[in-house]
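In the design runs reported in the main text, the only information available to the sequence generator was the tokenized backbone. The following block is the verbatim input for one such run; it is reproduced so that readers can re-run the procedure and compare outputs position by position.
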């Protein structure tokens, strides 16, 4: 069963063909980093315009690489939220048109669910597991009890971790996207040279990274002579420690021994290493997608779309994108 996935939630135009929800036949991603780098962040209008230019050639390339035509596709899966509304519109409108013209089933996929399913493209973690979804737009922890069964147990109160990376990179004059830049810079710095605060709220289990970003800004203003590498290393150490500690805490609280990481920040070398080490010390196992599957891509959307398809969860021509689309149902645990 071949699923065509389409992903345009932010600034990457992507299309993929995935077999049976786990085998990637093709996965094409067109990046917009060169467009947004000069601004130090994503400009939504420019992102949506670029999606309009690239959606047709990207989908065509994905189909060509897979050696498939419309008659070989079982369904079209598309991200319908959350994300930038202009970017989402491009993908949703294209997917609806493609499905209509070729009389194919249409499946709507939550972008966050897609990130969780990215792990299943290379492994098969046992349920239940704790899932950390950490990217430029999202930082949340879910307990996943089965396919489609998600409960959010922690989230960021303000900036996502990836957003903080982008902003700190801009403060250091180091370009966009900030995640890979800071990660590389931090390897040449001393993480103990600067003790940035650990963003741990006194009440609740949520994250907060806006204060850390401000602390970095104030430090740079007061100490302009400091090595950028040390600032990057100190900032990254704070983020990684907070993320790791909270995930391990949630896994212990719910008696779960399996942990998954996904989203762009999950490609961070320090986070991957520290999470794996801490989990191993507790007798837990961490599942990490390959770095190219951590960032936004259509293969993860096709993987999630496959589950929707076999469960009969289809969308119709009235499908509209949603900028805000929480994952999971029911109240959050106290």
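Verbatim output:
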């Amino acid at each position: 069963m071949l699923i065509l996935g389409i992903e345009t939630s932010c600034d990457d135009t992507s299309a993929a063909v995935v077999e049976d929800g786990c085998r990637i036949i093709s996965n094409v991603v067109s990046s917009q980093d060169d467009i947004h780098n000069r601004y130090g962040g994503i400009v939504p209008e420019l992102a949506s315009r670029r999606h309009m230019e690239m959606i047709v050639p990207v989908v065509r390339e994905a189909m060509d690489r897979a050696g498939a035509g419309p008659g070989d596709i079982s369904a079209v899966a598309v991200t319908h939220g959350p994300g930038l509304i202009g970017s989402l519109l491009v993908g949703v409108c294209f997917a609806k048109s493609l499905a209509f013209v070729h009389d194919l089933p249409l499946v709507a996929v939550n972008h966050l669910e897609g990130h969780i399913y990215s792990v299943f493209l290379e492994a098969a973690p046992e349920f239940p597991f704790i899932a950390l979804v950490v990217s430029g737009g999202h930082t949340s922890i879910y307990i996943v009890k089965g396919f489609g069964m998600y409960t959010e147990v922690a989230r960021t109160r303000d900036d996502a971790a990836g957003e903080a990376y982008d902003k700190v990179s801009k403060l250091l004059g180091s370009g966009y996207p900030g995640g890979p830049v800071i990660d590389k810079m931090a390897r040449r710095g001393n993480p103990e040279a600067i003790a940035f605060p650990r963003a741990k709220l006194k009440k609740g289990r949520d994250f907060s990274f806006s204060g850390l970003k401000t602390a970095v800004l104030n430090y740079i203003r007061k100490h302009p002579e400091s090595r950028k590498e040390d600032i990057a290393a100190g900032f990254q150490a704070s983020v990684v420690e907070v993320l790791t500690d909270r995930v391990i805490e949630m896994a212990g609280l719910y008696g779960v021994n399996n942990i998954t990481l996904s989203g762009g920040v999950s490609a961070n070398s320090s986070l991957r290493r520290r999470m794996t080490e801490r989990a191993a010390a507790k007798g837990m196992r961490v599942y990490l997608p390959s770095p190219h599957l951590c960032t936004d891509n259509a293969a993860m959307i096709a993987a999630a779309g496959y589950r929707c398809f076999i469960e009969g969860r289809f969308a119709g021509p009235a499908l509209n994108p949603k900028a805000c689309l929480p994952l999971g149902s029911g109240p959050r645990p106290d």
